[in-house]
DNA sequence: GACTGATCATAT
DNA sequence: ATATGATCAGTC
Protein backbone atom coordinates (compact mmCIF):
# COMPACT_ATOMS: atom_id res chain seq x y z
CA UNK A 1 0.00 0.00 0.00
CA UNK A 2 1.34 3.37 -0.96
CA UNK A 3 0.65 6.19 1.44
CA UNK A 4 -2.14 8.49 0.20
CA UNK A 5 -1.33 12.05 -0.71
CA UNK A 6 -3.65 14.98 -0.18
CA UNK A 7 -1.58 18.14 -0.37
CA UNK A 8 -4.68 20.11 -1.38
CA UNK A 9 -8.25 19.50 -0.19
CA UNK A 10 -9.91 16.83 -2.32
CA UNK A 11 -12.76 17.88 -4.63
CA UNK A 12 -16.26 17.08 -3.44
CA UNK A 13 -17.33 13.55 -4.33
CA UNK A 14 -20.02 13.28 -7.00
CA UNK A 15 -21.87 10.37 -5.52
CA UNK A 16 -21.91 7.95 -2.59
CA UNK A 17 -19.97 5.28 -4.41
CA UNK A 18 -17.11 7.61 -5.08
CA UNK A 19 -17.14 8.85 -1.49
CA UNK A 20 -17.19 5.32 -0.09
CA UNK A 21 -14.39 4.27 -2.41
CA UNK A 22 -12.23 7.16 -1.24
CA UNK A 23 -12.93 6.38 2.39
CA UNK A 24 -12.16 2.71 1.88
CA UNK A 25 -8.78 3.62 0.44
CA UNK A 26 -7.83 5.22 3.77
CA UNK A 27 -8.57 2.14 5.86
CA UNK A 28 -5.48 0.64 7.43
CA UNK A 29 -3.34 3.74 7.36
CA UNK A 30 -2.35 5.39 10.60
CA UNK A 31 -2.60 9.06 11.45
CA UNK A 32 1.12 9.70 10.99
CA UNK A 33 0.85 8.52 7.40
CA UNK A 34 -2.31 10.50 6.68
CA UNK A 35 -0.90 13.64 8.31
CA UNK A 36 2.23 13.34 6.20
CA UNK A 37 0.17 12.86 3.05
CA UNK A 38 -1.69 16.07 3.83
CA UNK A 39 1.44 17.96 4.77
CA UNK A 40 0.15 18.43 8.29
CA UNK A 41 2.07 18.30 11.55
CA UNK A 42 0.74 15.68 13.92
CA UNK A 43 -0.15 17.21 17.29
CA UNK A 44 1.28 15.55 20.39
CA UNK A 45 -2.25 14.70 21.51
CA UNK A 46 -5.83 15.84 20.99
CA UNK A 47 -6.18 17.89 24.18
CA UNK A 48 -6.05 21.14 22.26
CA UNK A 49 -6.95 19.66 18.87
CA UNK A 50 -10.10 17.70 19.59
CA UNK A 51 -11.45 17.93 16.08
CA UNK A 52 -8.15 17.29 14.32
CA UNK A 53 -8.90 13.80 13.02
CA UNK A 54 -12.28 14.82 11.72
CA UNK A 55 -10.88 17.79 9.84
CA UNK A 56 -8.05 15.70 8.41
CA UNK A 57 -10.46 13.13 7.00
CA UNK A 58 -12.74 15.89 5.68
CA UNK A 59 -9.78 17.08 3.63
CA UNK A 60 -9.08 13.62 2.21
CA UNK A 61 -12.71 13.00 1.38
CA UNK A 62 -13.59 16.40 -0.07
CA UNK A 63 -16.05 17.55 2.56
CA UNK A 64 -17.08 21.16 2.30
CA UNK A 65 -15.18 23.09 4.95
CA UNK A 66 -16.73 25.87 6.91
CA UNK A 67 -19.16 26.21 9.76
CA UNK A 68 -22.44 26.03 7.93
CA UNK A 69 -25.26 24.02 9.53
CA UNK A 70 -25.45 21.55 6.64
CA UNK A 71 -24.27 18.03 5.95
CA UNK A 72 -20.58 17.62 5.15
CA UNK A 73 -21.47 16.40 1.66
CA UNK A 74 -24.63 18.42 1.14
CA UNK A 75 -24.72 17.76 -2.60
CA UNK A 76 -25.13 14.04 -2.07
CA UNK A 77 -26.85 14.23 1.32
CA UNK A 78 -24.19 12.59 3.47
CA UNK A 79 -22.80 13.53 6.88
CA UNK A 80 -19.28 12.45 7.90
CA UNK A 81 -18.61 11.21 11.43
CA UNK A 82 -15.29 9.95 12.68
CA UNK A 83 -15.74 7.82 15.77
CA UNK A 84 -13.03 6.77 18.22
CA UNK A 85 -13.17 3.04 18.97
CA UNK A 86 -11.34 0.58 21.18
CA UNK A 87 -9.50 -2.54 19.99
CA UNK A 88 -12.83 -4.35 19.59
CA UNK A 89 -14.39 -1.65 17.49
CA UNK A 90 -16.56 -0.36 20.33
CA UNK A 91 -17.08 3.43 20.65
CA UNK A 92 -14.98 5.25 23.22
CA UNK A 93 -16.98 8.45 23.06
CA UNK A 94 -20.52 9.64 22.43
CA UNK A 95 -21.15 11.25 19.05
CA UNK A 96 -22.07 14.90 18.74
CA UNK A 97 -24.96 15.44 16.33
CA UNK A 98 -25.90 19.11 16.40
CA UNK A 99 -26.65 22.03 18.66
CA UNK A 100 -30.06 21.91 20.32
CA UNK A 101 -32.42 24.82 19.62
CA UNK A 102 -33.53 26.22 22.97
CA UNK A 103 -35.89 28.94 21.71
CA UNK A 104 -38.37 29.37 18.90
CA UNK A 105 -39.44 25.76 19.08
CA UNK A 106 -43.20 26.11 18.92
CA UNK A 107 -44.42 23.79 16.22
CA UNK A 108 -41.11 22.06 15.51
CA UNK A 109 -41.38 18.42 14.47
CA UNK A 110 -39.07 15.45 14.23
CA UNK A 111 -39.53 15.37 10.47
CA UNK A 112 -37.93 18.78 10.02
CA UNK A 113 -35.43 18.53 12.88
CA UNK A 114 -31.71 19.01 12.47
CA UNK A 115 -31.09 15.71 14.24
CA UNK A 116 -33.06 13.78 11.65
CA UNK A 117 -31.45 15.74 8.82
CA UNK A 118 -27.90 15.13 10.06
CA UNK A 119 -28.48 11.45 10.73
CA UNK A 120 -30.43 10.63 7.56
CA UNK A 121 -27.26 9.37 5.92
CA UNK A 122 -23.91 9.08 7.71
CA UNK A 123 -20.50 7.91 6.61
CA UNK A 124 -19.01 6.47 9.80
CA UNK A 125 -15.26 6.16 9.94
CA UNK A 126 -13.94 4.34 13.02
CA UNK A 127 -10.51 5.40 14.21
CA UNK A 128 -8.47 3.71 16.90
CA UNK A 129 -8.81 6.00 19.88
CA UNK A 130 -7.54 4.45 23.08
CA UNK A 131 -5.91 7.22 25.04
CA UNK A 132 -2.78 5.20 25.73
CA UNK A 133 -2.12 4.78 22.02
CA UNK A 134 0.05 7.49 20.44
CA UNK A 135 -1.83 9.55 17.86
CA UNK A 136 0.72 8.61 15.20
CA UNK A 137 -0.03 4.89 15.55
CA UNK A 138 -3.82 5.10 15.52
CA UNK A 139 -5.23 3.49 12.41
CA UNK A 140 -8.26 4.47 10.40
CA UNK A 141 -10.80 1.69 9.98
CA UNK A 142 -13.18 0.61 7.25
CA UNK A 143 -16.01 3.07 6.57
CA UNK A 144 -19.71 2.38 6.94
CA UNK A 145 -22.48 4.15 5.03
CA UNK A 146 -25.51 4.10 7.29
CA UNK A 147 -29.09 5.27 7.52
CA UNK A 148 -31.23 4.62 10.56
CA UNK A 149 -33.53 1.61 10.16
CA UNK A 150 -37.14 1.80 11.30
CA UNK A 151 -36.33 0.83 14.88
CA UNK A 152 -33.39 3.21 15.15
CA UNK A 153 -35.41 6.10 13.76
CA UNK A 154 -38.24 5.35 16.17
CA UNK A 155 -35.81 5.42 19.11
CA UNK A 156 -34.24 8.66 17.94
CA UNK A 157 -37.62 10.23 17.37
CA UNK A 158 -38.92 9.27 20.79
CA UNK A 159 -35.89 10.68 22.59
CA UNK A 160 -35.86 13.82 20.48
CA UNK A 161 -39.54 14.49 21.12
CA UNK A 162 -39.16 13.91 24.86
CA UNK A 163 -36.15 16.20 25.11
CA UNK A 164 -37.71 18.90 22.96
CA UNK A 165 -40.88 18.79 25.03
CA UNK A 166 -38.83 19.45 28.15
CA UNK A 167 -36.99 22.31 26.42
CA UNK A 168 -40.24 23.91 25.27
CA UNK A 169 -41.73 23.53 28.75
CA UNK A 170 -38.85 25.44 30.31
CA UNK A 171 -37.20 22.41 31.87
CA UNK A 172 -33.88 22.61 30.03
CA UNK A 173 -31.90 23.12 33.23
CA UNK A 174 -33.43 19.96 34.68
CA UNK A 175 -32.39 17.80 31.74
CA UNK A 176 -29.37 15.60 32.39
CA UNK A 177 -27.38 13.26 30.19
CA UNK A 178 -29.41 10.39 31.70
CA UNK A 179 -32.50 11.41 29.77
CA UNK A 180 -33.07 9.54 26.52
CA UNK A 181 -32.34 5.96 25.56
CA UNK A 182 -30.13 6.60 22.53
CA UNK A 183 -30.02 10.39 22.24
CA UNK A 184 -28.89 12.63 25.08
CA UNK A 185 -28.64 16.36 25.72
CA UNK A 186 -25.36 17.69 27.16
CA UNK A 187 -23.49 20.99 27.30
CA UNK A 188 -21.83 22.04 24.06
CA UNK A 189 -19.89 25.17 24.82
CA UNK A 190 -16.49 26.77 24.80
CA UNK A 191 -16.62 26.91 28.60
CA UNK A 192 -18.91 27.41 31.54
CA UNK A 193 -19.29 31.13 30.96
CA UNK A 194 -20.76 30.80 27.48
CA UNK A 195 -24.49 31.43 27.68
CA UNK A 196 -27.38 31.32 25.26
CA UNK A 197 -31.05 32.22 25.34
CA UNK A 198 -33.57 29.64 26.52
CA UNK A 199 -37.01 29.34 28.09
CA UNK A 200 -37.37 29.34 31.88
CA UNK A 201 -39.78 27.45 34.13
CA UNK A 202 -42.36 30.24 34.01
CA UNK A 203 -41.95 30.69 30.29
CA UNK A 204 -39.64 33.67 30.82
CA UNK A 205 -36.39 34.22 28.89
CA UNK A 206 -33.32 32.86 30.65
CA UNK A 207 -29.65 32.43 29.85
CA UNK A 208 -28.20 28.95 30.05
CA UNK A 209 -25.31 26.84 28.78
CA UNK A 210 -25.65 25.92 25.10
CA UNK A 211 -26.61 22.25 24.68
CA UNK A 212 -26.05 19.69 21.99
CA UNK A 213 -27.61 16.39 21.01
CA UNK A 214 -25.29 13.40 21.31
CA UNK A 215 -25.69 9.73 20.37
CA UNK A 216 -25.01 7.40 23.27
CA UNK A 217 -22.28 4.80 22.86
CA UNK A 218 -24.61 1.80 22.96
CA UNK A 219 -26.46 3.16 19.92
CA UNK A 220 -23.40 3.77 17.77
CA UNK A 221 -21.77 0.63 19.10
CA UNK A 222 -24.63 -1.53 17.94
CA UNK A 223 -24.86 0.04 14.51
CA UNK A 224 -21.15 -0.49 13.98
CA UNK A 225 -21.30 -4.01 15.38
CA UNK A 226 -24.23 -4.95 13.18
CA UNK A 227 -22.13 -4.12 10.16
CA UNK A 228 -18.72 -5.31 11.19
CA UNK A 229 -19.95 -8.38 13.07
CA UNK A 230 -17.93 -7.76 16.19
CA UNK A 231 -19.13 -8.47 19.68
CA UNK A 232 -21.86 -6.27 21.05
C1' DG B 1 -13.44 2.22 34.81
C1' DA B 2 -17.62 4.46 33.07
C1' DC B 3 -20.15 8.42 32.56
C1' DT B 4 -21.71 13.16 32.83
C1' DG B 5 -20.67 17.69 32.70
C1' DA B 6 -16.96 20.69 31.03
C1' DT B 7 -13.98 22.10 27.71
C1' DC B 8 -10.60 23.20 23.33
C1' DA B 9 -9.71 25.26 18.50
C1' DT B 10 -11.32 27.74 14.57
C1' DA B 11 -14.40 30.23 11.21
C1' DT B 12 -18.15 33.28 10.47
C1' DA C 1 -22.63 34.15 20.02
C1' DT C 2 -23.17 30.06 17.07
C1' DA C 3 -21.72 26.93 13.89
C1' DT C 4 -18.11 23.39 12.64
C1' DG C 5 -14.84 19.41 14.37
C1' DA C 6 -15.05 16.57 18.88
C1' DT C 7 -12.39 14.72 23.44
C1' DC C 8 -11.19 15.76 28.20
C1' DA C 9 -11.31 14.85 32.99
C1' DG C 10 -13.45 15.04 37.58
C1' DT C 11 -16.70 12.40 40.01
C1' DC C 12 -19.38 8.67 40.84
UniProtKB/TrEMBL annotation:
GO molecular function, one term: endonuclease activity
GO CC annotations on file: cytoplasm
Coiled coil: none
Function as written in the Swiss-Prot or TrEMBL entry: Sequence-specific endonuclease that cleaves unmethylated GATC sequences. It is involved in DNA mismatch repair.
UniProt record, GO biological process: DNA modification; mismatch repair
Record bears the keyword Glycosyltransferase: no
Similarity annotation: Belongs to the MutH family.
Residue span, DNA mismatch repair MutH/Type II restriction enzyme Sau3AI domain: 61-159
Keywords assigned by UniProt, alphabetized: Cytoplasm, DNA damage, DNA repair, Endonuclease, Hydrolase, Nuclease
CDD domains cross-referenced by the UniProt entry: MutH-like
Compartments reported by the entry: Cytoplasm
Full protein name: DNA mismatch repair protein MutH
Amino acid sequence: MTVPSCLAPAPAPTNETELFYRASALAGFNLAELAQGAGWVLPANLKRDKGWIGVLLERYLGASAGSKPVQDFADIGVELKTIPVDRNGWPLETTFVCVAPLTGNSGVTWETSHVRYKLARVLWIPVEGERGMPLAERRVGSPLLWSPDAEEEAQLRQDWEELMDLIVLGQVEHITARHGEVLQLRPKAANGRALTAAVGEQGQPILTLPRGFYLKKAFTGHLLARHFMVQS
